[in-house]
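Rather than argue in generalities, we have chosen a single entry, letters for residues, whole numbers for local backbone shapes, without further comment.
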Amino acid sequence: MSFEQALTELETRGVAVIPNAFDPEQIEGLVHNATEYVAHIERTIKAGSGPDFPPFYMWWRPGLACNLTALDPTTRALAINEFSRTTLCRAVMTGAVQAIIRSSIGADVGSALVRIRAIIPSIGNGDGRLALHMEKTAVQFPGVHVIWTPLVPPGIVTNYDAPGLRFRIGSEFFIPKMRTGDLAIFNGSIEHGTFVPDAARHWRVGCDIRIFPWTETNHLPPEAIAMGQRPERLVWP
């Protein structure tokens, strides 16, 4: 998909899915860590003992979620929450993606609540899935958009082998099949949530990158602020 096509879809439908947006080899370490993350969650939940993570993960049990920076190879050892320093930021923020962001949001961009979420069908109830919702309802930054990308092993396709995302656009659902290296960009007014195909047996990990015109005002939910989450000015790679 060209830059022009993606920008048109974002402006007219509120969501654009870009296949092969970046090289998955750039985030091999992150995908490896995400795989270990899922294995630990699955093992400990089935054993009835956890899981337990260090505080900088900012673990959230309902969404099986933690900070991206707790898993990304360049930030996890430092226990810092700076999206701009992650391998995922460098991979995702290609020239084409930067052009879309600059056109739809602006050149001075903030990010916040950049989180990893797992969905693990094998654990049954509490598997991490979320109902349809709008991002702007809780994350109330004016102009908020989300970049979402799956972090799954090679050969796994979300909304086919594994859970994925679905979007409600008018009276229709848009249920894209995505691989690692693909990404979706959507605005905060689009209803979206988890979709789990009947045949899905594999887990899915994805990352939500919430971006908006830069502001120092913290429009995150009170519980996120209490955990220490704050907006961060994006440093372009």
In short: The longest strand covers residues 109-119.
